[in-house]
Design a protein that fits this description.
458 residues; alpha+beta; five-stranded mixed β-barrel
């Protein structure tokens, strides 16, 4: 190793040593030679030793303080352990006392405990009854007391007082008393159009509310009285109007004994227009065909009625008139005075045949409608059931409402088809009979003319 490398090694070792001895001496002064470097190392060692001795002295001085702190912490721990033992002992003693007190309470309560349980159940049931009773529309807030009473009885930390028990009895008695009365009172009513107005409401027991000839409902969630969005049929509304206008006298009234359940189902029933709409396109086609058939029948009825009257007048007259089929047949005889019997018979037959289309026209159309209408209804039945099965395929059978549309279409179209076909059959039979009666008169008169001509020629 050369002298240069030796200096370099000693310089690096010295720097590392200085760094290890003191963190305060971070950069060693650059030594001019090896002697100065050794001197600096010696001074650093001496300073480090002095610092270490100072730190040892400080640690020794604080040792007594640390011992005092440790002793204080140990004293606090012992005190906490003592407190915990006393509290645990007190807890156990309290548990025993509580059990003894509970046993004593149960023994003293005896049958009263069962009574309080019954009171709690009655209070809960009555609260539910009051929430749906229309009496609450006139006397609100009754259920609040029952709710608080039932909760206090359920907590078992408070016994029912005589006043509370009497209040429960009073509310039950008042509900029974009010259920037998028909009373009128002023109350804000929410109309079907959303507006509010003060109206005289008539309460029929705990069954129904009416005002201004309309049925009302009591909404417990909002504490409001509102008109039913859909009212029952007019005969029920007439009874409601009569009751609203009554002044103490007895009147007939459509009463819902279930307190509104039957009325709610009744008003949800579809009306005639809604049932017709359930038939869909097929139903409208059936109705259109039926309307056409009725118009044809009406036209045929008027035409045959007028022709029949003219024929009847012609039967009573010897002067033939060309404004009726019989007159035109009789004119054939007058127009052919010299024709032989065979020729006259042919001419009369020709004339009678010429009158037939006028008497039987469009009757065939009525007959066709009577046959086609139920067939179209059957078509609607098939399409409705197809829709039902498609709904079952897509959504399953969990919700019957999804299948109701197709079933309704099937049934309504069947009904519409029969409703159109049945009267069409009767109308065709009736009009056809009238036309055949007129034709029979023409044939009879024609035969009479031929017989008269034959007698003359004989």
């Amino acid at each position: 190793m050369t002298i240069k490398n030796t200096r370099k090694f000693i310089s690096i070792a010295g720097a590392a040593l200085v760094s290890a001895l003191s963190i305060n001496v971070t950069v060693a002064q650059e030594a001019a030679n090896l002697d100065q470097l050794l001197s600096q190392l010696e001074k650093g060692k001496v300073a480090q030793n002095a610092q270490n001795r100072q730190r040892e002295a400080e640690f020794a001085a604080k040792k007594s303080e640390q011992d005092a702190m440790l002793k204080a912490a140990d004293d606090r721990r012992q005190q906490a352990i003592g407190l915990s033992e006393r509290l645990e002992l007190g807890y156990q003693e309290n548990e025993v006392k509580l059990a003894n007190q509970t046993d004593a309470l149960n023994k003293r309560m005896g049958e009263l405990k069962e009574l309080f349980g019954v009171l709690q159940q009655v209070a809960g049931d009555t609260k539910s009854k009051f929430q749906t009773s229309v009496v609450s529309a006139q006397i609100p807030g009754r259920e609040q007391f029952l709710d608080e009473f039932a909760q206090s009885m359920g907590a078992s930390s408070k016994l029912a007082s005589i006043e509370e028990i009497e209040r429960v009895w009073f509310e039950l008695q008042r509900e029974m008393t009010e259920s037998g009365k028909v009373v009128k009172f002023e109350r804000e009513v929410v109309l079907a159009n959303g507006q509010k107005q003060n109206s005289e409401v008539t309460r029929v027991g705990n069954f129904n509310l009416v005002a201004n000839g309309q049925y009302l409902e009591y909404i417990f969630e909002t504490g409001s009285v509102a008109e039913l969005q859909r009212q029952p049929v007019s005969r029920h509304l007439a009874s409601a109007a009569t009751l609203s206008a009554a002044n103490g006298e007895q009147v007939s009234f459509a009463l819902d004994p279930t307190g509104g359940s039957i009325l709610a189902l009744l008003v949800q029933a579809p009306n005639l227009q809604e049932r017709t709409d359930q038939g869909g396109t097929v139903g409208y086609i059936i109705l259109a065909i039926g309307a056409i058939g009725l118009l044809i029948a009406l036209e045929r009825f008027i035409a045959l009625f007028l022709i029949g009257n003219k024929v009847s007048r012609q039967l009573k007259s010897d002067v033939a008139s060309d404004d009726n089929p019989l007159g035109r047949v009789m004119l054939v005889k007058d127009n052919n005075p010299n024709a032989d019997v065979d020729t006259l018979e042919l001419r009369l037959s020709e004339s009678v045949l010429g009158e037939l289309p006028k008497l039987t026209s469009r009757l065939t159309m009525i007959k066709i409608i009577s046959v086609v209408a139920p067939l179209i209804g059957l078509l609607g039945t098939v399409t409705g059931m197809i829709n039902t099965f498609q709904a079952i395929t897509l959504f399953g059978t969990g919700d019957p409402k999804l299948m109701a549309g197709g079933i309704s279409q099937a049934l309504v179209t069947t009904v519409l088809g029969l409703v159109v076909a049945i009267p069409m059959v009767f109308l065709f039979a009736w009009l056809n009979t009238r036309s055949r009666n007129i034709i029979s008169i023409l044939q009879q008169q024609s035969a009479g003319i031929i017989a008269e001509r034959s007698e003359k020629e004989a």
